[in-house]
Every structure is written in structure tokens, then in C-alpha cells.
Amino acid sequence: MKTKIISLTVMYSLLHFLQAQPIHMAMKAETFKIPGKEGYNASGLTWNPKMKMYYTAFAGNSKYPLYAIRENGEAASGAIPLGFDSRGLWYNTKEKCLQGNAYYDKGLYKMTIAATGFPVSGEQVYSGQHQPSENSIGAFAEKKKEIWYYKSGFLYKYKIKDGAFSGSKKLETGTYEISLNNNAMVYTGLKNREIGLYDYKNNRVLLFSAKSGKLTELWAIPDSTLDYPDSYNISYCNGRFWIFHKSGREWRGFTLKK
Q1: Using 50, 70 and 90 to split pLDDT, how confident is the model at 258?
Q2: 127, 240, 246 from 31: Cα distances, Å
């Protein structure tokens, strides 16, 4: 009986905290379509600040193209087969290349970028399951030199250098009523709100402190025509939270600024 009372008290406290959080309204930003028909679940969208280009990839087949998109949303020519079954995609500003984790135990890959900004080749950096589950979507925490993943209420961290596990953190998601995208998270790089999760039931973004694991901000997405992805299809780059609208085959961006 005592255990039940404590559990109910904790649940009530978390629910009260969540309800007390003010809900901010995100602002619509860019939207751009992805050409072709190959790929259904987007594994990531990333931004190359030097070349002013976006890159996106899809999970499910190593032969799916890696798409390059200009800043104005125009699809650039020169798409190449990705070369691995993607479960994450990001641009490493220090290494000046694209990187991504792969399905299950296929490890980490990197893709060379030509002077034109187009990806030209890819190679495996290391193999092994350096992620919590086979379909985990990685987010590159560049400041920490780690790849971060979300699974079942926990943040998992792995060193990008060799894939070594470096720790986990319980995230205070608040209440079981929230439905979170089950295999994808984003890294914002913003202090005290580094971790982003998508609540597909209520169409909002939850931001958490990487240090404490506490929920720090809630953002409502002002778009009622989305597919509300319960897996894959979210990303963060160029100061925007992105949702891939599968039925329209387009990335829709939103800014999270007060």
C-alpha cells in the first residue's frame, strides 16, 4: 500500500509539472519537396553551413539516394546511392563531411563532399551495434563529440570516435498520456534544452535539459495537415525543427524562438 501511495504521488507530481509548463507556439519556416519516389521514412535532414545546402536520406535500403537541396529549396542534381541503410544523418563541421549511423550493427558511415557541395562517395568508419536498438535514429551532439539516441524514456550516449557507450540519462517525460516518436530524437545545441522529442499525439515538441533530464519547454506545431510521425521523420538543423510529411514528400520547418 505504501509503495502504491508513493507511486501515485510521483505520477501526480509529474502530471502537475507537465500541465504547469507554458506551451509556446512554433513559427512556420521553409517547406521543400524531395524529388523522386524512393524512400518512405526519412532518417534525417542536415545542413552544410559553408555550402548552404541541405542533405536528406531515407531508411530501408542502402541503394536509396542521398539528396542534396539548395538553400532556396531547389533540388540539386547529382544524387548518389547512399551506400548504407541509414538510421541517422548529420553534417560534421569539424570533419567537413556527412556522417550517419546505420541499421542494427552496421555501425557508422561517412560521406565525402566535393567542392561543389555534392556528396561523391561513402565508406564505413566502424561496424557494430553502437546504439540502443536496431532502428535507433542517431543525433550528433557535436559539442560533446557523441551520438545521442532516445529509447523508452532514456537518452543513450555513444562516443563518435569509436562507438563506445558513454552513459544514459532518464528523461522526465511527465505522463504516460504523451505519445512520443519511438526511435528518433533531435539535438539542438541550445543550453538547457539540448534534447528534442516529438509528441505525435498532441503535435508538439518537448525540449529537455541534457544535464538534468528535466522537461524545460513545450512547443506546439502550427500545422494540422502533418502525418504526425510516430517513428523516423523528424530532424533539427539550421535553427529549425523539421518534420517530414510523407504523403506530400516534403520537409516542413519550424522555428522554436520565444
Answers
A1: confident
A2: 35, 11, 13
